[in-house]
Fold each of these.
Amino acid sequence: MDHRLIVVAREEPDLFDYIRRDQFGDDNVTVIADRRHGDRRRPRRDEHDPERRRSDRRRCDIDDLLRVHGWGEVLLSPD
């Protein structure tokens, strides 16, 4: 069964508490607060450093959902 990860915008602590209480007891749901601060990788000014990652680690982009609705949901399949 798929696991649901619900990410709540850091600016919405009341919404985080509400969703966490609403989903309490559902072992297939994890509710977390968004902890990202943007892209931490900054190129050095003195030289060009090509992107080393082959792809972005994030499987699902929920930035728009967090900005508009205050939360987003990601389905995680067991690997």
Amino acid sequence: MKKVSLLIPVALAVALLSFQQIQTDLNASMERGKEIYQRNCISCHMDQGEGLPGIFPPLSKSDYMLADKKRAIQQTLYGVSGEMTVNGTQYNGEMNGYDLSDEQMSDLMNYIFNSFENKAGVTTPAEVKSARKK
């Protein structure tokens, strides 16, 4: 019985350290992503991701963006044009894509998906790579 009781605290400590490492990695990724956002996205989507109603869609609490991570990655990489409804508002515009590496794109998506009242978890470079059109 003593072996089992010793394993529980060890397992909890390992899980806590793993969580802390993931959070540290996410925070570093988000910092890099914030720089990319400020260079490329802020002029349309604004400082707090609020966009401009009817002109540039919001990224803050965006039902459209949060509904499909792969689509969000692809539209950021390759651009998007045409109609879309975001948080009940119709948009019909165009966004250019961005030539970013898998790591840069995952950093940008980590920033957007975990800022502006969004909580969408971690996006990895491997997810970006698999979202690229073949």
Amino acid sequence: MKIGVSTYSFNSYVKATGADIFAVCDKAKELGFDYIEFVALPGNDQINLAKSLKQHCADIGLEIYSYVVGANFLADDILEEVKKVKFQIDVAKNLGAKVFRHDVCYALKKEPFYDYKKAIVDMTPYIKEVSLYAKNYGIKTCTENHGFIFQAPNRMEELILSVNEDNYGWLLDIGNFLCDDVLPEYGSKIASKYTCLMHAKDFLFKSGDAPMPNGYSITTNGGNYIRGTVIGHGVVPVFKCINILKKAGYDGCITIEFEGPEDNIYALENSLKYLKNII
């Protein structure tokens, strides 16, 4: 299994040092990651930036594996949203990314009795359309279990089965299940049949039977509290989840996402060391 890192994981490092996206690539290579995952490229000339990043990463020997962006397939102007997502797939192509992750929605429609099942029906044809568009470039599309609406594993499985496209899969984030108070190993078991990429992260956990502790920022759907931390320091059973995937035949990539308050580089170094020890 290859271990990579999301540019998202360097947010604190960027704020502290002023590093640009090219310097982030250099740091990822220096730390020993196999590949990098880019989050929605900045600026108004994303295509040319993608080409420059592809060349830079080739020069330093860092693979570009995945590209992740936001998307809302419940948008009022759905045709414009599909157009935007297809453009981002063009960006992914110019990066040389093999996997393209997009969101599906941020909130449900404010209509009587509108629920996630109706959302799946409405979104399915457009998700399939962009996946087929990406397939022409040899890029696999996927959606991640995050965003509170589609974090629960049963909802994600229903979505993937509805789209029913072999080029569309699941970006399994083993930590995000805690946002819905679901055991990560339970969610990983369901996701293992559809996983095309894995995000590894860890959380500290506090019960909601007391006020939120200082330093915590996320309240789960069940009213508990979590905050990001170094992989291996929290409650996410990372080793168990990886073994569940292995038993299902997954031998793909693992991308580290770090979002805790610990020193950024310390956290990434130790998260990478932990993953190397258990895979």
